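Quick log. Single chain, no ligands specified.
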Amino acid sequence: RDHPAVIKRRFTSVLVVSSLSPLCVLLWRELTGIQPGTSLLTLMGFRLEGIFPAALLPLLLTMILFLGPLMQLSMDCPCDLTDGLKVVLAPRSWARCLTDMRWLRNQVIAPLTEELVFRACMLPMLAPCTGLGPAVFTCPLFFGVAHFHHIFEQLRFRQSSVGSIFLSAAFQFSY
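-> predicted structure:
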């Protein structure tokens, strides 16, 4: 899973699927006649109206959610906070991250493609069928099911006990 060749193959497959997903939404819109005349980007949630609060508020919420673990890390770290910030903000540290395939997969490619497929493409298709409320709660369930392959991977390579693997998967799925 973490071998660079495997990561590159997965990048390619994700690029293909992510490129096909908007086309599926477009085809679905044409076949069902739901929301005719709406542009594909608008249907997928890409619009300039309200872009700043839509981008800023989730970012602030994410920052607040990570304050707890960051504070814990700073208390557990033998170096002081300013030294830690210097390391994290150093250009060399970012250059190292941008050349690390695992970092790119986990921090850039996966979040972008998952948001595209599970929110921008799936939500407009589910909302007219189920209503907005159920669609908002159904998309994360599909997202969780899409990650069940991690269970099989862990079982195949015996990375932990069966009970521990299923407990971890149940926790992640419920989250």
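The chain has two domains: 4-129, 131-174.
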